[in-house]
Amino acid sequence: MTGPAPTDGPSTPSGAGGPSPSGDGAPVVTSSTVLGTDWVLGDDGLRYRRAARVLLVDAEDRLLLVRGHDVDQPERSWWFTVGGGIDPGESARDAALRELREETGLVLDDAALVGPVLTRSALFDFYAEHCRQDEEFFLARVQTALDAAAIARDGWTEVELDVLDELRWWHLDDLAAETREVFPEGLADLVRPLLAGWDGTVRHLGLQRDD
Description:
This protein is of the alpha/beta class. The chain has a single domain (about 30-210), classed as Alpha-Beta Complex (Nucleoside Triphosphate Pyrophosphohydrolase). The chain contains six helices and nine strands, in the order αββββαββααβαβαβ. The protein has helices at about 30-35, 90-105, 145-150, 160-165, 170-175, 185-190, and strands at about 40, 45-55, 65-70, 75-85, 115-125, 130-140, 165-170, 180, 205-210. The longest helix is centred in the middle third of the chain and has 13 residues, at about 90-105. The chain is globular, with a radius of gyration of 17 Å. Its cofactor is Mg(2+). This is Nudix hydrolase domain-containing protein.
C-alpha cells in the first residue's frame, strides 16, 4: 500500500493517540498505525522503507493516479502514483507488479514493465510523524480502452480503504493544472518525455520533501 498522505501540519509523537485534528475529542488512528511493519527505523531516526511505483499510461497518454489522505488530517488529500512497499526478499520489479495488481486489479507480466525510469528519496510530513521512502518508478502501458476501463479497487485492503479515496486517469495538461497537491512534484513534466518510449536513462530526482 502507499500509506496516508504527507501533510505539513503539527507533529505529535509517533504512535500517539489523542483527540482528532478537528478538536471533537474523538480518538483517531494515527499514521504510525497505518504505515505498517514494513517501515523500520533508519539511521536518521525516521521510519523508512523502500518502495516501487508504477507510472501507468493508457492508449490516450493518460496517467493513472490514486488520491489519498492522512488519517490524522483527512481534510488534506493529494494525488500520487500506484505503488507501495517492497516486501523482504522481493525485487523492486516484482513489488511494482504486485502493487499494480492489488491496487488496480491489472495483471501484467514482467515484460510489460519498463525501467526503473525514475528514482527519488521522499520525506513525508505526516500529521503524526515524519518518515522517509526511497522509491523506484517503473513505466507501463495499457493498450486498449477496455483495459483502462477495467481498472478497479476491489483488491484494496481495509487499511487502504481508510486512506485511499479514488483512482483516476489524468490527461497530463489537466494534471499540470491541478490545484490539489501531486507527488512527485512536477509529475506531468516527468512523464511527458516517457510517452514516446524510454531511452534507457534513469532519472535520479534526489531527495524531495512531500509537504
